[in-house]
Amino acid sequence: MMQAYNEKVHPREFHEGDLVLKKILPIQKDFRVKWMPNWEGPYVVKKSFFGGALILTEMDGKSLPNPVNLDSIKKYFEGGMLHLGALTKSSKPAKHLSSSKGVLEKFCAEKLML
Fold first, then answer.
1. What residues have CB less than 8 Å from 114, skipping those under 6 apart?
2. Per its record, what are the GO molecular function terms (predicted)?
3. Confidence (pLDDT) at 99
4. The whole model's pTM is what?
5. Domain residue extents for the chain
6. What is the spatial distance between Cα 56 and Cα 101, in angstroms, rounded to a whole number?
7. Is the model's pLDDT at 89 over the cut of 70?
């Protein structure tokens, strides 16, 4: 049984510069509402240790005070349906995004600094 489990498990590895999300750990006195976010970030991995601890920094370069365990981290993927690398000034948004043209242009300007 252990062998079958080990075949399906893929170890997670984080390297310096990876973007990650950190799980918001509940405080016992804090009553968490159903619609509150479960993850915060993105953060940048500054250093990764062998035991599974990570030192994270915010996007502006400010380090978090304590290391974070690997169990409360997941990779951050940018873009969703929108592929940022494919957009330029001359390209046009897809049909399903054309209704929100102003939002799309603002998003591209912020992310790509056009």
1. 89, 108
2. RNA-directed DNA polymerase activity
3. 46
4. 0.60
5. 1-77, 79-114
6. 35
7. no
Task: Identify whether 42 is preceded by a cis peptide bond (ω within 30 of 0).
Answer: yes
Domain 1-77 indexed as CATH 2.30.30.140: yes
Other C-beta atoms lying within 10 Å of the C-beta of residue 63: 13
In this structure, are residues 59 and 44 in contact, taking their beta carbons and an 8 Å threshold?
yes
Interval 92-106 mean pLDDT: 52
Instruction: Please tell me the number of Cα atoms within 13 Å of 3 on its side-chain side.
Output: 0
**Token pair listed for 13:** 């590895």
Q: How far apart are CA 86 and CA 96, in angstroms?
A: 16
Q: Which two tokens stand for residue 28?
A: 């016992």
Separation CA 103–CA 93 (nearest Å):
11
**Per the structure block, which two tokens stand in for 52?**
């599974």
Please state, as a whole number, how many other Cβ atoms lie within 10 Å of the Cβ of residue 56.
Answer: 21
